[in-house]
Amino acid sequence: MSVPNPPAASPAPQLPPVPPAGAPQAPKKNVLALIAMIIAIVGFIFACIPGALVVGWVLLPIAFVLSIISLFLKGSRKWMGVVGLIVAVVGTIIGFIVFFAVVATSFNDAFSSGETTVSQPLDEGTDAAESDDTAAESSDSAAEGTRENPYPLASQISNDDWTVVISSVNADGDSVVADANQFNDAAPEGSHYEIVTYTVTYTGDDKGLAAEVQLDAVTSAGNVVSSFDHTVMLSDSFGLDELYNGASATGSQAFAVPDGDAVLYRVTPGMFADEVFVKP
Protein backbone atom coordinates (compact mmCIF):
# COMPACT_ATOMS: atom_id res chain seq x y z
CA MET A 1 0.00 0.00 0.00
CA SER A 2 1.44 3.25 -1.14
CA VAL A 3 1.73 6.21 1.17
CA PRO A 4 0.37 9.51 -0.30
CA ASN A 5 2.83 12.31 -0.81
CA PRO A 6 2.52 15.10 1.74
CA PRO A 7 1.18 18.42 0.38
CA ALA A 8 3.81 20.78 -0.91
CA ALA A 9 4.62 23.60 1.45
CA SER A 10 3.43 27.03 0.29
CA PRO A 11 6.25 29.46 -0.54
CA ALA A 12 7.14 31.94 2.16
CA PRO A 13 5.78 35.47 1.50
CA GLN A 14 8.28 37.82 -0.09
CA LEU A 15 9.01 40.85 2.07
CA PRO A 16 10.28 44.10 0.56
CA PRO A 17 13.98 44.48 0.85
CA VAL A 18 15.00 46.37 3.92
CA PRO A 19 17.48 49.09 3.11
CA PRO A 20 20.65 48.81 5.06
CA ALA A 21 20.96 50.98 8.10
CA GLY A 22 22.05 54.51 7.26
CA ALA A 23 21.05 54.34 3.57
CA PRO A 24 19.28 57.53 2.27
CA GLN A 25 15.56 57.19 1.69
CA ALA A 26 13.82 58.51 -1.44
CA PRO A 27 12.26 61.97 -0.80
CA LYS A 28 8.52 62.04 -0.36
CA LYS A 29 6.14 64.05 -2.48
CA ASN A 30 5.66 67.51 -1.05
CA VAL A 31 1.94 68.13 -1.50
CA LEU A 32 2.10 71.46 0.32
CA ALA A 33 4.82 72.70 -2.04
CA LEU A 34 2.73 71.65 -5.04
CA ILE A 35 -0.29 73.56 -3.69
CA ALA A 36 1.88 76.61 -2.98
CA MET A 37 3.31 76.56 -6.50
CA ILE A 38 -0.13 76.29 -8.12
CA ILE A 39 -1.53 79.13 -5.99
CA ALA A 40 1.50 81.28 -6.78
CA ILE A 41 1.12 80.75 -10.52
CA VAL A 42 -2.59 81.56 -10.43
CA GLY A 43 -1.93 84.62 -8.27
CA PHE A 44 0.81 85.75 -10.66
CA ILE A 45 -1.63 85.59 -13.57
CA PHE A 46 -4.27 87.61 -11.73
CA ALA A 47 -1.66 90.16 -10.61
CA CYS A 48 -0.95 90.96 -14.26
CA ILE A 49 -4.62 91.73 -14.98
CA PRO A 50 -5.60 95.29 -13.93
CA GLY A 51 -9.20 94.32 -13.20
CA ALA A 52 -8.24 91.31 -11.08
CA LEU A 53 -5.38 92.72 -8.99
CA VAL A 54 -7.23 92.09 -5.73
CA VAL A 55 -7.41 88.36 -6.41
CA GLY A 56 -3.69 88.28 -7.12
CA TRP A 57 -2.92 90.17 -3.91
CA VAL A 58 -4.95 87.64 -1.93
CA LEU A 59 -3.39 84.53 -3.51
CA LEU A 60 0.26 85.63 -3.64
CA PRO A 61 0.74 86.12 0.12
CA ILE A 62 -0.92 82.75 0.74
CA ALA A 63 1.43 81.11 -1.75
CA PHE A 64 4.40 82.85 -0.13
CA VAL A 65 3.56 81.54 3.35
CA LEU A 66 2.82 77.99 2.12
CA SER A 67 6.08 77.92 0.16
CA ILE A 68 8.08 78.94 3.23
CA ILE A 69 6.40 76.22 5.31
CA SER A 70 6.97 73.57 2.61
CA LEU A 71 10.70 74.25 2.63
CA PHE A 72 10.93 73.22 6.27
CA LEU A 73 9.24 69.84 5.81
CA LYS A 74 11.84 67.11 6.26
CA GLY A 75 12.27 64.29 3.81
CA SER A 76 10.30 65.93 0.99
CA ARG A 77 11.12 67.48 -2.35
CA LYS A 78 11.91 71.19 -2.13
CA TRP A 79 12.00 72.41 -5.72
CA MET A 80 8.27 73.11 -6.04
CA GLY A 81 8.38 75.16 -2.83
CA VAL A 82 11.29 77.17 -4.22
CA VAL A 83 9.41 77.77 -7.48
CA GLY A 84 6.30 78.81 -5.57
CA LEU A 85 8.34 81.21 -3.43
CA ILE A 86 10.02 82.84 -6.43
CA VAL A 87 6.77 83.16 -8.37
CA ALA A 88 5.03 84.67 -5.33
CA VAL A 89 7.75 87.31 -4.87
CA VAL A 90 7.99 88.21 -8.57
CA GLY A 91 4.19 88.26 -8.87
CA THR A 92 3.93 90.67 -5.94
CA ILE A 93 6.43 93.04 -7.55
CA ILE A 94 4.62 92.92 -10.87
CA GLY A 95 1.31 93.42 -9.07
CA PHE A 96 2.60 96.67 -7.54
CA ILE A 97 3.84 97.85 -10.93
CA VAL A 98 0.47 97.16 -12.53
CA PHE A 99 -1.31 98.83 -9.60
CA PHE A 100 0.70 102.05 -9.88
CA ALA A 101 0.24 102.06 -13.65
CA VAL A 102 -3.52 101.76 -13.21
CA VAL A 103 -3.54 104.53 -10.58
CA ALA A 104 -1.44 106.81 -12.79
CA THR A 105 -3.72 106.22 -15.76
CA SER A 106 -6.84 106.82 -13.69
CA PHE A 107 -5.35 109.95 -12.16
CA ASN A 108 -4.42 111.28 -15.58
CA ASP A 109 -7.89 110.52 -16.96
CA ALA A 110 -9.57 112.17 -13.98
CA PHE A 111 -7.55 115.37 -13.92
CA SER A 112 -6.15 115.78 -17.40
CA SER A 113 -7.83 118.37 -19.57
CA GLY A 114 -6.90 116.64 -22.79
CA GLU A 115 -4.53 117.72 -25.52
CA THR A 116 -3.78 121.43 -25.73
CA THR A 117 -4.29 123.06 -29.11
CA VAL A 118 -3.55 126.63 -30.18
CA SER A 119 -5.15 128.78 -32.85
CA GLN A 120 -3.05 131.79 -33.79
CA PRO A 121 -4.58 135.12 -34.80
CA LEU A 122 -4.38 136.05 -38.47
CA ASP A 123 -2.96 139.41 -39.43
CA GLU A 124 -4.94 141.47 -41.88
CA GLY A 125 -4.03 140.45 -45.39
CA THR A 126 -2.67 137.07 -44.26
CA ASP A 127 -4.69 134.02 -45.22
CA ALA A 128 -4.70 130.67 -43.47
CA ALA A 129 -2.37 129.05 -46.02
CA GLU A 130 0.30 131.68 -45.47
CA SER A 131 -0.08 131.29 -41.72
CA ASP A 132 0.39 127.51 -42.02
CA ASP A 133 3.52 128.03 -44.13
CA THR A 134 4.98 130.39 -41.55
CA ALA A 135 4.19 127.95 -38.77
CA ALA A 136 5.83 125.12 -40.69
CA GLU A 137 8.99 127.18 -41.22
CA SER A 138 9.20 128.16 -37.56
CA SER A 139 8.61 124.59 -36.43
CA ASP A 140 11.81 123.51 -38.22
CA SER A 141 13.86 125.21 -35.49
CA ALA A 142 11.72 124.65 -32.39
CA ALA A 143 8.28 123.38 -31.55
CA GLU A 144 5.63 126.06 -31.38
CA GLY A 145 4.56 127.16 -27.95
CA THR A 146 7.97 126.54 -26.37
CA ARG A 147 10.22 129.21 -24.87
CA GLU A 148 12.29 129.14 -28.05
CA ASN A 149 9.26 129.60 -30.30
CA PRO A 150 6.38 131.19 -28.33
CA TYR A 151 2.95 132.00 -29.72
CA PRO A 152 1.89 135.63 -30.27
CA LEU A 153 -0.63 137.52 -28.19
CA ALA A 154 -4.31 136.81 -28.84
CA SER A 155 -3.58 133.15 -29.60
CA GLN A 156 -6.46 130.92 -28.54
CA ILE A 157 -5.14 128.20 -26.23
CA SER A 158 -7.66 125.39 -25.79
CA ASN A 159 -8.18 121.90 -24.41
CA ASP A 160 -11.20 119.87 -23.33
CA ASP A 161 -11.94 122.12 -20.33
CA TRP A 162 -10.64 125.61 -21.01
CA THR A 163 -9.98 128.20 -23.68
CA VAL A 164 -7.54 130.98 -22.74
CA VAL A 165 -6.72 134.16 -24.68
CA ILE A 166 -4.20 136.77 -23.50
CA SER A 167 -5.58 139.95 -25.02
CA SER A 168 -3.00 142.51 -23.86
CA VAL A 169 0.14 143.09 -21.81
CA ASN A 170 0.85 146.52 -20.31
CA ALA A 171 4.60 146.67 -19.80
CA ASP A 172 4.31 149.91 -17.80
CA GLY A 173 1.91 148.84 -15.09
CA ASP A 174 3.33 150.70 -12.07
CA SER A 175 0.82 153.51 -12.36
CA VAL A 176 -2.06 151.06 -12.84
CA VAL A 177 -1.10 149.23 -9.64
CA ALA A 178 -0.72 152.47 -7.70
CA ASP A 179 -4.08 153.83 -8.85
CA ALA A 180 -5.95 150.55 -8.25
CA ASN A 181 -5.42 150.47 -4.48
CA GLN A 182 -3.55 152.79 -2.12
CA PHE A 183 -2.34 149.81 -0.09
CA ASN A 184 -0.60 148.15 -3.05
CA ASP A 185 3.17 147.95 -2.61
CA ALA A 186 5.45 149.42 -5.22
CA ALA A 187 7.46 147.00 -7.32
CA PRO A 188 10.75 145.92 -5.71
CA GLU A 189 13.86 147.88 -6.67
CA GLY A 190 15.13 146.83 -10.09
CA SER A 191 11.74 145.61 -11.24
CA HIS A 192 8.42 146.93 -12.50
CA TYR A 193 4.86 145.69 -12.80
CA GLU A 194 3.47 144.29 -16.02
CA ILE A 195 -0.30 143.94 -16.27
CA VAL A 196 -1.64 140.96 -18.21
CA THR A 197 -5.30 140.93 -19.25
CA TYR A 198 -6.77 137.64 -20.39
CA THR A 199 -10.04 135.77 -20.81
CA VAL A 200 -10.85 132.21 -19.77
CA THR A 201 -13.84 130.23 -21.05
CA TYR A 202 -14.96 126.96 -19.50
CA THR A 203 -15.70 124.31 -22.15
CA GLY A 204 -15.89 121.20 -19.94
CA ASP A 205 -18.89 119.05 -19.14
CA ASP A 206 -19.64 120.31 -15.64
CA LYS A 207 -18.17 123.43 -14.04
CA GLY A 208 -14.78 124.82 -13.10
CA LEU A 209 -13.02 127.67 -11.35
CA ALA A 210 -11.17 130.32 -13.32
CA ALA A 211 -8.28 129.88 -10.87
CA GLU A 212 -7.62 126.46 -12.43
CA VAL A 213 -6.01 128.31 -15.33
CA GLN A 214 -2.48 129.25 -14.33
CA LEU A 215 -0.54 132.19 -15.72
CA ASP A 216 3.11 132.95 -14.88
CA ALA A 217 5.86 135.15 -16.25
CA VAL A 218 9.17 133.55 -17.23
CA THR A 219 12.30 135.69 -17.47
CA SER A 220 14.97 135.35 -20.14
CA ALA A 221 17.14 133.61 -17.53
CA GLY A 222 14.41 131.04 -16.94
CA ASN A 223 13.12 132.29 -13.58
CA VAL A 224 9.40 131.91 -13.00
CA VAL A 225 7.56 134.97 -11.64
CA SER A 226 4.16 134.34 -10.09
CA SER A 227 1.50 136.98 -9.45
CA PHE A 228 1.53 135.75 -5.85
CA ASP A 229 5.16 136.77 -5.37
CA HIS A 230 3.99 140.37 -4.88
CA THR A 231 0.23 140.32 -4.50
CA VAL A 232 -1.56 143.50 -5.50
CA MET A 233 -5.20 144.32 -5.97
CA LEU A 234 -6.35 145.54 -9.37
CA SER A 235 -9.69 146.96 -10.36
CA ASP A 236 -10.30 143.83 -12.48
CA SER A 237 -8.27 141.24 -10.58
CA PHE A 238 -9.10 137.63 -11.31
CA GLY A 239 -11.10 136.00 -8.52
CA LEU A 240 -12.51 132.56 -7.86
CA ASP A 241 -15.05 132.81 -10.67
CA GLU A 242 -17.16 129.66 -10.93
CA LEU A 243 -18.05 128.94 -14.53
CA TYR A 244 -20.37 126.48 -16.23
CA ASN A 245 -20.02 125.30 -19.82
CA GLY A 246 -19.71 128.24 -22.19
CA ALA A 247 -19.25 130.90 -19.48
CA SER A 248 -16.28 133.28 -19.60
CA ALA A 249 -14.41 135.54 -17.20
CA THR A 250 -12.00 138.35 -18.04
CA GLY A 251 -9.52 139.86 -15.62
CA SER A 252 -5.95 141.02 -15.06
CA GLN A 253 -2.92 140.00 -13.03
CA ALA A 254 0.18 141.99 -12.13
CA PHE A 255 3.70 140.54 -12.31
CA ALA A 256 6.81 142.16 -10.82
CA VAL A 257 9.36 141.49 -13.57
CA PRO A 258 13.01 142.61 -13.80
CA ASP A 259 13.66 145.92 -15.53
CA GLY A 260 14.83 145.56 -19.11
CA ASP A 261 13.90 141.85 -19.31
CA ALA A 262 11.73 140.65 -22.18
CA VAL A 263 9.66 138.10 -20.30
CA LEU A 264 7.41 135.45 -21.78
CA TYR A 265 4.11 134.34 -20.33
CA ARG A 266 3.42 130.70 -19.58
CA VAL A 267 -0.20 129.59 -19.86
CA THR A 268 -1.35 126.33 -18.28
CA PRO A 269 -5.04 125.82 -19.19
CA GLY A 270 -5.92 123.54 -16.31
CA MET A 271 -4.15 122.04 -13.31
CA PHE A 272 -2.46 119.23 -15.24
CA ALA A 273 -2.58 120.62 -18.77
CA ASP A 274 0.33 121.19 -21.12
CA GLU A 275 2.02 124.56 -20.73
CA VAL A 276 2.21 127.00 -23.62
CA PHE A 277 4.44 130.09 -23.91
CA VAL A 278 3.19 133.40 -25.28
CA LYS A 279 5.31 136.39 -26.28
CA PRO A 280 3.96 139.91 -25.65
Automatic annotation (TrEMBL):
Keywords: Membrane, Signal, Transmembrane, Transmembrane helix. InterPro entries: Immunoprotect_excell_Ig-like. Signal peptide: none annotated. Residues 124-135 have a biased composition (Acidic residues). It comes from the Bacteria. Residues 1-21, 115-155 are annotated as: Disordered. The chain crosses the membrane at residues 31-49, 55-73, 80-103. The keyword Thylakoid does not apply. The keyword Signal applies. This is DUF4352 domain-containing protein. It comes from Microbacterium soli. The lineage of its organism: Bacteria, Bacillati, Actinomycetota, Actinomycetes, Micrococcales.
